[in-house]
Specification:
alpha+beta; hydrolase; Creatine Amidinohydrolase; Creatinase/aminopeptidase-like; 16 strands; single chain; three-stranded antiparallel sheet; 13 helices; Creatine Amidinohydrolase, Chain A, domain 1
Amino acid sequence: MKYHAINSQLFIKNRKNFMAQMKPKSLAIFNSNDIYPVSADSTLPFEQHRDIFFLSGVDQEESVLVLFPDCPKENLREVLFLRETNEHIAVWEGEKLTKEKALETSGIKNVHWLQDLEKVLAEMMALADTVYINTNEHYRASVETETREARFTKWLFNKYPAHSVAKSNPILQRLRSVKDQIEIDLIQTACDITEKGFRRVLDFVKPGVWEYEIEAEFIHEFIRNRSKKFAYTPIIASGNNANVLHYIENNQQCKAGDLLLLDVGAEYANYSSDMTRTIPVSGRYTDRQKAVYNAVNRVKNDATKMLVPGTLWADYHVEVGKLMTSELLDLGLLDKADVQNEDPNWPAYKKYFMHGTSHHMGLDTHDYGLLHEPMQANMVFTVEPGIYIPDEGFGIRLEDDVVIQETGEPFNLMRNIPIEADEIEDIMNK
């Protein structure tokens, strides 16, 4: 891995918190992701399942974690299974975790090779009444591929049909949404790498460059700072491309006078960052562009102040809608009649700002979090309002990542990334 080793106390704490919420005489099982094939003998780069990483720090394929907190056999309360490594694998694929290294990474003392899984699991299941399975119940999830976790669950139900079944996901949704300080520091590192990429791009952008060249500038800076990739598919959208919310082709030339929307973030140690900035290709905003830009920035700043413990996500978005409506009236994009006659299910402001303002962020860019429950300190949220005006040939979105505090305004993890229009102009014209 490119990232520095993470303190195993994070994973020890995460397991302790998870096991504290399990039913008596129950065990929970977590699998790594598959390595997915492309065709012939080629595969996609491996991405670890975030849940087993959250609970163990193991960032390797073919790994299984079993937790059984009240097992009468103390050595079976935490068991990690790894693909056995050897000199041949080391030569052809590189270093894999040894049992000693796995203990150092995870804090788990009982480590077995994967070939022992069925035998050891049979011993554990005989002592358990309930088994927790790990299903994907994220509100944005739409999964068609059968995962390793899903295949394992089918095998488990067939092998042990008499056990009661419980779900790991509701526990993980709550645990993962509230970050440990170690996690916040890792997200901060991802944000700092994103800042370096953005500053590089501010020096690079000028009329005539291509969107894909800008994408290349970002990934160059990310990788040289120990990130392995973009946290999500980058959006490099010049001109009217910015009005396509998930524009990812990144294949057009940037033209003089256009705005360039950059929705880009680096990952670090599997943790995400999520930044959006909108910059002038020619280095200066027009008066109209700056007026819309500053309106979006005001909404972002005022919305950020609402992210405090106790806030409900749905109520927050209603209030942000009111802020945006006021700005759109001032810009002449809406009039009073538009607002008076609006459909309550699709308010007038949605014509120009049609997406949500904030989502949880962490190990996933759209991270775990139960949206019907009040916000808590140490949750990390994006704040990302936008105004999209196809008729005028541009769209503007601004986005920061913030940590909710016990009291006061959130802490902005992107506080050092330029965002004020004048500052961006000064940097681009220095």
